[in-house]
Specification:
One of its GO terms (biological process) is DNA repair. It is an enzyme of class 3 (hydrolase). It catalyses: Endonucleolytic cleavage at apurinic or apyrimidinic sites to products with a 5'-phosphate. Its EC number is 3.1.21.7. Pfam families: Endonuclease_5. By secondary structure, the chain is of the alpha+beta class. It has one domain: archaeoglobus fulgidus dsm 4304 superfamily (archaeoglobus fulgidus dsm 4304 fold), CATH 3.30.2170.10. It is 29% helix and 26% strand. It is built from five helices and eight strands; from the N terminus they run H-E-E-E-H-E-H-E-E-E-E-H-H. An eight-stranded mixed beta sheet has the order 3-2-1-4-5-8-7-6, with helices on both faces. A hairpin with a 5-residue loop joins strand 2 and strand 3. Helix 2 crosses helix 3.
């Protein structure tokens, strides 16, 4: 697995534009028996990133495998280029997996990004795996407020282009922002996020990865 590490903001933007052209917005997969979640957190004190990938059974949502990696930051904090900062520890965690997932859900954006290339797109293209972006907050675009019932959604629009769906995963709870990452259509991405949210606002993939990251972050901070 080869990944380029840009040395400047200009280089990163050029690479981002080149990789964005490779994103596929159609369903290109067969059955999904395993699905993974990712999360990344930053520790200010040590300038380290903690990245986690948790693989779940796609039917039962039970955890099959977890890999957590801590690495030094390689790229600065630049809005719109977060994936260059967060991708390295996730790729390291992915390489350690013995159960390679059929699909990945990222705690972040896919096409719902100013340059249509959020973390979910970046991870999907580099790994060549179907990937979905599911963000807690809006990064760009405008939308109507979806109805308060589970499953209700409205399109997220930017420059007259639909870049995602604003999806209510539970009744009377704040919606999430779903977008294409790679090799998954928007309608399929929305279906999967609903499957992954039987009880809570966030998909189980994200919840489990977040718990692993927080646990590792606390351990890291305790060492300091």
């Amino acid at each position: 697995m080869q990944i380029e590490h840009p040395s400047s903001e200009t280089e990163a933007q050029a690479l981002q534009e080149a990789l964005a052209a490779q994103v596929i917005s159609d369903d290109q997969f067969d059955s999904v028996t395993t699905i993974a979640g990712t999360d990344v957190a930053y520790d200010d004190a040590t300038n380290q990133l903690v990245g986690a990938i948790v693989v779940l059974d796609a039917c039962t949502l039970e955890i099959i495998e977890t890999q957590v990696v801590t690495e030094s930051v390689r790229f600065p904090y630049i809005p719109g280029l977060f994936s260059f900062r967060e991708l390295p520890p996730l790729l390291s965690a992915f390489e350690r997996l013995t159960h390679k997932p059929d699909m990945i859900v990222c705690d972040g954006q896919g096409l719902a990004h100013p340059r249509r290339f959020g973390l979910a797109c970046h991870l999907g293209v580099v790994l060549d795996i179907p990937t979905i972006g599911c963000g807690k907050t809006r990064l760009t675009g405008t939308h109507e407020t979806p109805l308060e019932t589970r499953g209700a959604s409205t399109p997220l629009i930017d420059n007259e282009q639909v870049i995602g769906e604003v999806l209510r995963t539970q009744d009377n709870i704040k919606p999430v922002y779903v977008s294409v990452g790679h090799k998954v259509s928007l309608s399929t991405a929305k279906e999967w996020i609903l499957k992954l949210t039987p009880k809570y606002r966030l998909p189980e993939t994200t919840r489990q990865a977040d718990q692993q990251v927080n646990k590792a972050l606390k351990a890291l901070q305790a060492q300091g």
